[in-house]
Amino acid sequence: QVQLVESGGGLVQPGGSQRLSCAASGIIFRIYTMNWFRQAPGKQREMVATITSTENTNYADSVKGRFIISRDNAKNTVYLQMKSLKPEDTAVYYCHVNFGKTNYWGQGTQVTVSS
Fold this sequence. Notes:
The chain has strands at 3-7, 10-12, 18-25, 34-39, 46-51, 57-59, 67-72, 77-82, 91-99, 102-105, 109-113. The protein is mainly beta.
């Protein structure tokens, strides 16, 4: 069974930093593209960052230069390092992988950026 378990969310002030983690199991982690999505209140879920098995990365325009996605294959974990956080970054952040023509999601972790 594919499982994605997220951690690291919480309350942070504007301009602050936070690192999210997603631990994966049930897949051969190293061969899969891993993704972070987020969903803000009243908004559609959107892709935030992607990292391939060869560590090529892509980012949403709104987070370029502020967020970094990385992976540690030995730990089966993908990270999202967030800096210079803005109130508009407030959302539930989800870890995601596509496997066997099925989308798998973590439970989501709330990130709230507020003073």
